[in-house]
Amino acid sequence: MTVNADAQELAKFSDLAHRWWDPESEFRPLHEINPLRLDWIDSLAGLRGKTVLDVGCGGGVLSESMAGRAAHVTGIDLSTKALGVARLHALESEVMNLEYREIATEALAAERPGSFDVVTCMEMLEHVPDPASVIEACARLAKPGGWVFFSTLNRNPKAFLFAIVGAEYVLKMLPRGTHEYERFIRPSELARWCRDAGLTPAGSRGLQYNPLTKRYWLSDDTSVNYLVATRKPG
Length: 234
Prior knowledge:
It comes from Rubrivivax benzoatilyticus. The chain is α/β, with parallel strands linked by helices.
């Protein structure tokens, strides 16, 4: 089976792996938005006691925080270095209800279909060759009635201006080349892939940023960054 991953994208994040948990590093935006998305996921799905899969977990920032909400979390990624950082941090933080695996989403879906109450796939779809395949695998991994969450970037001139020109070149919040505009995903495209995978839309939020106050918040504006909640029919 061909692995649905881009070697260049994996290398890009692997090179930065050792900085994943440094809140002043290139991953600062991730640390700042994490409480917002964690609270939103928890408010809808109720993480306590749930079995949770974090797809494309990277260094484990969201995985570890969901485990902190008393969920039983499995984080998966294809970056060996990022997973090494994630495992080390969990060990140092003495987080017990958390495990990491280096496995593709599609491979895990074949191995453990219908296993998770909650599946999260955040800031990953715009980095893989076939996002629809990941969405389909996430749907297969969820239990009937389970929640599946995605976040990605909209594809329009405003998103190009804010997420690439602004974030990578002007404000230098992210390394240049972090994102490729043609890989951004319109909400209508994401909704279609979710429907094709048998998932029912259950809500969406936009993520906004004010460069003057350096503050993030969730809103109804999905024109740049956005999060989507879906459910697998029970």
